[in-house]
Amino acid sequence: MDPREFQRFAATIASGSPAACRTAISRAYYAVFNVGVETLRRMGFRVSKGAAAHGEIYKCLSNSGDQEVADVASELNDLHSYRIRADYQMDRTDVERPVLASDVVNTATELIAAIDAAFGGPRRAQLQAAIAKWRRDNGYP
Hints:
Elements: H1 4-13, H2 18-42, H3 52-62, H4 67-88, H5 98-120, H6 124-137
């Protein structure tokens, strides 16, 4: 499945009920996360499965040697925090607001576009080399 489908789905429900807003936030995060996983795997990197993969994607993007991609990592980390609130913290009603859900969905759309542009363009080889070096230096296969 193309993880961008999560993003499209999130956009259709972001202005709904509290449950829909929480779901939109969660799906928007997972859309970006899975685009990151897909991108790294297509470049030949193995990505952990399970909870460790979240930190691994963040670290790889953060250590890509490219400020724009590092900014994507930082924003992805922010989306992860919203996702945790939406999925696990039922006392947090901020994630039930359509305005916030729409903002998260829009941010996710921008992050996916930034990943696609960075890794689909002429910077790809440079990004791949920087990430490979960081992974080697930090014990990742």
